[in-house]
């Protein structure tokens, strides 16, 4: 997968923030060497956040986010500020653009406190350095001029340094494998499967297996028995789509480890332990409880969609027909979670780790269990314990 095909959930998200007319969009354009954002002398030109996926040296694949002015006013302004705050939940590195001729304002200081509260590494870029210089700079500060394109390379280097501090080698499954290992991937092809392609977690898993020098064998659940019989070598691992977990579990011999794409994705995004604990909470649900099923992306829902159709059906069968189900998708994650007894989130393949963990922490702060699709399905089909045996540190 080339840099410009890197999934947005795996890109470093760099957010640009600041007051109206601080030159934020001009700095973004200079930073990216292209006209990403609309530039104007009129305050408040940027309305909704502007996203641009790109490869930016020396950082590699990134997602650049230009936000509305944090001092926006009026009803529309308040909505823009709200969207700007939402962007913070997915920002890996923040750049606060300040007009050097005006200096840090209380609003800028408020933004810095938000960065610190959310543990977001940040740089303060004093723009319009062609009009006024500033010498008493702190370590996290820099003077730039978007107009003259000065200091921009140094700004990129500062941001790149912060992204280097953030990056850690993460693997979906490769760290569980050795060179030459055989892995069988069970991939159902039904009406909900995208036409002519595989979904992102399946693509990423296959790539990680190949990067490990292991061998990936793919089949549908209907061909699994024949596939296992025809193999001359015992598989090191079988990975299945969660929707056919029960059927696959009956077929795969007990001495072959079994897990799912969704479980691997939960580990990759940093919330496997929490999701496993959350799944066991399904047994404590009762009539009248409300469960939120949240999806990180928006897509056309099929008649047998897993989030809106299959999981609600399985929950009602496991708990009660009187259980209440609510749905959310895309960037809309409810601010008020008080009415929910459980939150079941998708695998988060289209969200970066920071946003998934933010949603998880919002949930845990309110003492609400949090799990994901595949782990919930594994629990309701009675095979969760088997599906997490690959990870001995997990205990009920």
Key words describing this protein structure:
396 residues, 18% strand, four-stranded parallel sheet
Secondary structure tally, helices? 13
- Segments where pLDDT lies below 50 for 5+ residues? 36-46
The proportion of strand residues reads 15-25%
Q: In angstroms, what is the radius of gyration?
A: 24 Å
The overall pLDDT, averaged over residues, is 84
Number of DSSP-assigned strands? 14
What multimeric state do the chains show? single chain
Sheet/helix structural class:
alpha/beta
- Helix and strand run: EHEEHEHEEHEHEHEHEHHEHEEHEHH
Inertia-based shape:
globular
Span between termini: 37 Å
Biggest sheet statistics: 6 strands, mixed
Strand order of the largest sheet: 2-3-1-4-5-6
> Helical percent range?
25-40%
Explain this structure:
By secondary structure, the chain is of the alpha/beta class. Helix content is 33%, strand content 18%. The longest helix is centred in the first third of the chain and has 15 residues, at 74-88.
List the helices and strands and how they pair.
Blueprint: E1 12-18, H1 24-32, E2 50-56, E3 60-66, H2 74-88, E4 93-99, H3 106-117, E5 122-127, E6 141-143, H4 152-166, E7 182-186, H5 200-211, E8 215-219, H6 224-230, E9 237-240, H7 245-251, E10 258-260, H8 261-268, H9 272-280, E11 290-295, H10 306-318, E12 324-329, E13 342-345, H11 353-365, E14 370-372, H12 373-380, H13 384-387
Parallel strand pairs: 1-3, 1-4, 4-5, 5-6, 7-8, 7-9, 9-10, 11-12, 11-13, 13-14
Antiparallel strand pairs: 2-3
Helix pairs in contact: 9-12, 10-12
